[in-house]
Design goal:
Mean pLDDT of chain B: 94
CATH topology of the largest domain in chain A: Aspartate Aminotransferase, domain 2
Strand order of the largest sheet of chain A: 1-9-8-7-4-2-3
CATH superfamily of the largest domain in chain A: Type I PLP-dependent aspartate aminotransferase-like (Major domain)
Largest sheet of chain B: 5 strands, parallel
Radius of gyration of chain A: 22 Å
Mean pLDDT of chain A: 95
CATH class of chain B: Alpha Beta
Number of domains of chain A: 2
Strand order of the largest sheet of chain B: 2-1-5-6-7
Helix content of chain B: 25-40%
Strand content of chain B: 15-25%
Shape of chain B: globular
Oligomer: heterodimer
CATH class of the largest domain in chain A: Alpha Beta
Helix content of chain A: 25-40%
CATH topology of chain B: Rossmann fold
Structural class of chain B: alpha/beta
Order of helices and strands of chain B: HEHEEEEHEHEH
Largest interface: A-B, 50 and 32 residues
Number of strands of chain B: 7
Radius of gyration of chain B: 15 Å
Number of strands of chain A: 14
């Protein structure tokens, strides 16, 4: 954008958004644990409430600690701005809210986190929205699913429960052709492994709970805007292109240009939905992000070794890791995710549902939790937990059938991870 | 090229400029041109509105001028153009005729770009910024956008 120096990812993950505290010189970003902010005078208050000046009014909208995290994630993703919120699920609603209205739909991948499938297939109906689920490997089906009421295409970069990498450029092309944005959930890949904006996506959402924070300390979410989508190119996005009654008829896109979506996320989304991230939570994620690249390198390295070991094991039916040569997505992963296919994948145990339960109950190092992207290795039997609300067909379509275990490989010594799986498989298949 | 002006260049312009003639500014408060000009006024710049359709009325404490020829005796540092790209050459010619030698900067708003006029302005020793908004650049460079989570591109460990 300018001739300013371009910094490396490792530098940005530490410095972007942050500066020494001007009041104290504190080097680490202070936790600004305050609800409200004093106005200098009436003019200042008026300018803030009119969106004329950008500043702090009330922590439901903006907070100095959260703002550092927002800028850091926006920078790492290569976007223009970001809005943090209370969870990844909140981020999905925050991303869709400016685009949707009653009667509108989102075309979504069948391969999504089970909780997202439920949010999209059930809960959003109460807003009058709907989702059409399609196999994103079938481009014709995706094209056919988009109708005049479609306002976005939604996918995950590395799809939970793992093993599938979405062809983001192909999805972006379809979105472009229909004048709608592609939203990519980049939680499981992180901007270190996957660059959705460089592949044509318009918006990115994150559960910051996962790799960005890194140690399973706090829930959070984030919506990042590439700034490249033209909200006024058609009449599909009146919240952004048409006069906003709550701001005296101001048009967000016309007034804020490429910053419109982020301003809208604060001024309407956080203001009225209130799914705010708290500053203490932002602090944990900020500290975690300082080591993101180092952790991701280890996560990927360990995942590759564990997947290769499991694939050779006779007690294992199959392994879905896209970093394996046997994966149908190996070529795509290599091309689109050259630093690795993440650390989340599934494997099927010979012996089905019962053997899976035994493996889970026999592990010592792995934790049986409904989470991923922790420094610790995690395991879950999706069919009996996260994907429990789904039909068996939906479970199979999502890659979470009854004989499948999902692993989130941590950054422990890889020989210990493998030894733990070995002893648990021995007990389960004895 | 100057279409990718450095942060230092933008910073210097926004710091040294005192008086801005906003050409094509609207008196309708929800129009972007008004929003930008009002912000610059709020930030302490002297903002002189120029709009023939509104000439004679008051805006930001200044009489709206019909065109730049009315500003021959005013020390205008910068013209900020809120007009179609093809309107830029005539505005530039007026500026060169009436505002030189004081004028230092020709700024064209987002969506406004005219390479021929830009080259001519540069040949006359003027700073040229195209396809940018001084409000957004001010907010980015002076720490405001940082307060709302925008990517400012500013990396610094200095107090």
């Amino acid at each position: 954008m300018t001739d300013r120096p371009s910094y490396g990812f490792d530098t940005l993950q530490i410095h972007a958004g942050a500066r020494p505290d001007p009041a104290t010189g504190a080097r680490q970003t202070p936790i600004h644990q305050t609800t409200a902010y004093v106005f200098r005078d009436a003019d200042h208050a008026a300018a803030l409430f009119n969106l004329q000046e950008v500043g702090f009014i009330y922590s439901r909208l903006t907070n100095p600690t959260v703002a550092v995290l927002q800028e850091r994630i926006a920078t790492l993703e290569g976007g223009v701005g970001a809005v943090c919120c209370s969870s990844g699920h909140a981020a999905q609603i925050m991303a869709l809210f400016p685009l949707m209205s009653p009667g509108m739909n989102v075309v979504a991948s069948t391969r999504l986190y089970g909780g997202t499938l439920t949010q999209f297939s059930q809960t959003i109906k109460r807003f009058g929205w709907s989702a059409t689920f399609v196999d994103m490997d079938d481009e014709e089906a995706v094209k056919a699913a988009v109708d005049e009421n479609t306002r976005a295409i939604f996918c995950e970069s590395i799809a939970n429960p793992g093993g599938y990498v979405t062809d983001i450029p192909a999805m972006a092309k379809i979105a472009d052709a229909n004048g709608i944005p592609l939203i990519v959930d980049n939680t499981t890949a992180t901007p270190f492994l996957c660059r959705p904006f460089e592949m044509g996506a318009s918006l990115v959402v994150h559960s910051t709970t996962k790799y960005l924070t890194g140690s399973g300390t706090v829930t959070g979410g984030c919506v990042v805007d590439s700034g490249r989508f033209d909200w006024s190119q058609n009449d599909k996005f009146p919240s952004l292109s048409q006069p906003e009654p709550a701001y005296h008829g101001l048009k967000f896109h016309e007034t804020f240009g490429e910053l419109a979506f982020t301003f809208h996320g604060i001024a309407i989304g956080l203001r009225d939905l209130g799914m705010t991230m708290n500053p203490q939570g932002a602090h944990y994620t900020l500290v975690g992000m300082e080591t993101l690249s180092l952790r991701m390198e280890r996560h990927v390295e360990n995942a590759q070794k564990v997947a290769e070991w499991l694939e050779k094991d006779p007690r294992v039916d199959y392994v879905t890791y896209a970093g394996l040569k046997s994966s149908p997505y190996a070529d795509r992963a290599k091309k689109l995710y050259p630093r690795g296919a993440g650390a989340l994948f599934t494997f099927a145990v010979k012996g089905g549902y019962d053997a899976c339960i035994k493996v889970v109950d026999s592990l010592e190092i792995f934790s049986h939790v409904a989470n991923l992207g922790d420094a610790r290795s995690l395991i879950i039997h999706s069919a009996s937990t996260t994907h429990r609300q789904l039909s068996v067909e939906q479970q199979e379509a999502a890659g979470a059938g009854p004989s499948v275990l999902r692993l989130s490989i941590g950054i422990e010594s890889v020989e210990d991870i493998i030894a733990d799986l070995d002893q648990a498989l021995a007990k389960a298949t004895a | 090229m100057t279409d990718n002006p450095s942060d230092a260049f933008l910073h210097q312009i926004l710091r040294d400029t005192k008086t801005i003639a906003c050409v094509g500014v609207s008196s309708n408060p929800v129009r972007p041109s008004h929003f930008v000009a009002r912000y610059l006024h709020y930030r302490g710049y002297r903002v002189i509105p120029v709009n023939p359709g509104q000439a004679g009325k008051l805006l930001f404490g200044e009489v709206i001028r019909a065109d730049l020829s009315e500003l021959a005796d005013t020390p205008v540092d910068m013209i900020d153009i809120f007009r179609r790209p093809d309107a830029v050459p005539a505005i530039l010619d007026q500026a060169l005729e009436h505002l030189a030698p004081h004028l230092k900067t020709v700024w064209m708003q987002i969506g406004v770009q005219n390479e021929e006029a830009a080259a001519k302005a540069r040949a006359h020793g003027l700073n040229v910024i195209q396809n940018r908004c001084p409000k957004i650049e001010y907010q980015r460079l002076f720490g405001e956008l940082r307060k709302a989570g925008f990517n400012t591109g500013i990396i610094s460990s200095r107090l």
